[in-house]
Amino acid sequence: MSQEDNQNTVDAEGVTPESAENTNENTAAEGQDLVKALEEARGKADENWNELLRARADLENMRRRHSRDLENAHKHALDKFVNELLPICDSLELGLNAAQGSDANIDKVREGMDMTLKLLLSSIGKFGLEAVNPENEAFDPEAHQAVAMQPAEGVASNTVISVMQKGYRFNGRLLRPAMVVVAQ
After folding, report:
1. Cα 164 from Cα 178, distance rounded (Å)
2. 162, 178 Cβ separation under 8 angstroms
3. What 3 state SS string does the chain have?
4. Under a CB-based contact definition with an 8 Å cutoff, are residues 120 and 84 in contact?
5. Taking 60 as the threshold, does the pLDDT of residue 114 lie above it?
6. pLDDT, tens digit, for every residue of 21-67?
7. For labeling, which of 7, 75, 136, 147 is most exposed (least CB within 10 Å)?
């Protein structure tokens, strides 16, 4: 049989020997392409899996670091404030020692207490605490607590004429209202 006869010969399924060879070659090539594509997909999947594991590890490390930083912030939140108060404690101790001496002078003790109070108010002022001293101002029920009303000459009604106890604000929020006497 010649090659021409071979090409014209068709088996029972309608496939010529030459087309069968081409089909086998195509199938083998497609199989190799599929194996190659599968290997690439597996490689990419492994790479993505490793990236996921690294991202999870990074996230867990970040959570631990944040938790540790938050815990330290809670522990050491008042360090700066306490350090500001230490000179005031020292000043009070010096004042007590000076007042207990045999040559104690009330004027010097008073002067020392005044300086210590100024130091205290300056220190706590750095952290947002401010005194509310409304003397000669209009009575404000939001910031003042009236403990008494007295008639006062030359003063408008509802004016604070004396402060019995200062009030305090911390970062703009009222901590304690000032206890005041108001003109009738």
Report:
1. 8
2. no
3. CCHHHHHHCCCCCCCCHHHHHHHHHHHHHHHHHHHHHHHHHHHHHHHHHHHHHHHHHHHHHHHHHHHHHHHHHHHCCCHHHHHHHHHHHHHHHHHHHHHHCCCCCHHHHHHHHHHHHHHHHHHHHCCCEEEECCCCCECCCCCEEEEEEECCCCCCCCEEEEEEECEEEECCEEEECEEEEEEC
4. no
5. yes
6. 666 677 878 888 899 999 999 999 999 999 999 999 999 999 999 99
7. 75
Residue pLDDT, tens place only, 134-177: 988 999 999 999 999 998 888 888 899 999 999 999 998 999 99
In the chain, % of residues over pLDDT 70: 87
